[in-house]
Amino acid sequence: MKTLLLLCIIIIFAITHSSGQRANKKNKADSVLKFSPLTPRGYLNLTANDFKEQSIAPFKMKKKQFMHFGIFCAATAVLVISDPNVDAYARKLDNYKLVRKVSPFITNFGSNYGIYTVGALELTGLIFKDKKLVTSGILASQAMITSGIYTWIGKIGFSRSRPSVSYGTRYYCKGGPWHGAPDYFDSWSDTKKVPGAGYDAMPSGHTSMAFSIATVYAMMYKDHLAVPVFSYTMASLIGLSRMTEHAHWGSDVFVGAALGYLCGRQVVNNYEKLSKIYTKRHKHKDISVSLNYSENKYLAGFNYKF
Q1: I need a labelling partner for 209 at 20 to 30 A (CA). Which of 142, 189, 287, 306 fits?
Q2: DSSP-based three-state secondary structure for 168
Q3: Whole-angstrom Cα distance, residue 72 to residue 103?
Q4: In b/e form, how buried is each residue of 109-140, taking b as 16+ CB within 10 angstroms?
C-alpha cells in the first residue's frame, strides 16, 4: 500500500510539473490538452477513455479477433487441464537452491519492485527532462490501474484456490477448486474456511501488472530492440516465479499475462490515436510573406503552411 502511495505521489508530481511547463507555452489550444497524460485533466480523461474503450472492445470484435479469442480460450482450457502436472514439476524445482534463492526476488518485481522501477524511471525522466520517459511512466500507471481492476474482478468471479494454500490440507484439489464469488466473500468472515487471499488465484495479479508495464515500455521504445526484449523477458520470468512460488497455477499466469498485455497495448494505442487526432485538428497554420528585389523588379511572395 505504501509503495502504491509512493508511485501516486511521483505520478502526481510529474503531471503537475509537466502541466506547469505546458501552461507557460503560448498559443496552445486548450482542447489539444484534453487527452494529454501530462496534465491532471488529460490524465483523468485518458484513463476514463481507456476504461470506456476496453469495456466495449469485446462487442466490437471482428472475425480475426474472434479467431484469436477462440485460440486464447482453447489454450487456457489446455493449461487448466495441465495445471496439476505443471504444478507438480514446479514443486520439484524446490530442490534447487538457485530457484529457492532467486524466485522470491524476481516475483517481487510483479508488485513492489515493479512500482519502484516505474517510479525511478519517472523521476529520471523528470530530472533529465525526458518527455518520452515521463509519458511512458504515466501511461504505465494507467495500464496498471486498468489491468489491476480487471484482475480483481476476475479473482472474485472465478475465486480459484491457490496451489500453496491447500498443500497438506483437506482443501487440496488437483488444479485447485473453483468456488465462485459467494464463497470468496464468505471466506473473509468464516474462520473455518480458507482465508479469502487463498481464493484469488485466477488470474495472476503479479503477472498482469508485469506485462502491463512491460508492454507500455516495449511499445514506447519499440525502435530500441533491447527494451522490448528485456521488458518481456523480465515479465515472463515474473510469471514463471509465481508458479515456483506456488502462488499460482500455469493457467492463472497465462491469463494474467494476456490481460496485462492487452491493457498495456490499448493504453498506448489509445494515447497515440487521440494525440494524433487532437494535434492534427488544432495544428497551427503558418503564414509568411516575403519581398525580394531581383533584376530591377520587386517580387512578392506568400507562403501558407498547413
Answers
A1: 189
A2: coil
A3: 27
A4: bbbebbbebbbebbbebbeeeeeebbbbbbbb
- DSSP characters for 16-39? HHHHHHHHTSSS--GGGGGG-TTS
CA distance 104 to 11: 27
- Is the dihedral angle over the CA atoms 35, 41, 47, 53 positive or is it negative? negative
Give the span between the Cα atoms of 257 and 246, in whole angstroms.
17
- Output the nine-digit C-alpha cell for 258: 494476456
Give Cα separations from 277 to 34, 50, 294, 305 (angstroms).
11, 16, 43, 19
Domain of 238, CATH number, reads: 1.20.144
At 55-107, the pLDDT tens digits run 999 999 999 999 999 999 999 999 999 999 999 999 999 999 999 999 999 99
The model carries a pTM of: 0.83
Q: Is residue 50 part of a domain?
A: no
CB 45 within 8 A of CB 35: yes
The residue type at 136: S
- Whether cis (ω within 30° of 0) applies to the bond prior to 203 is yes
**Helices vs. strands in the chain: H and E counts, helices first:** 11, 2
Q: Which residue range is the domain that position 268 belongs to?
A: 2-20+61-272
Per-residue pLDDT reduced to its tens digit, 284-300: 455 554 545 455 554 54
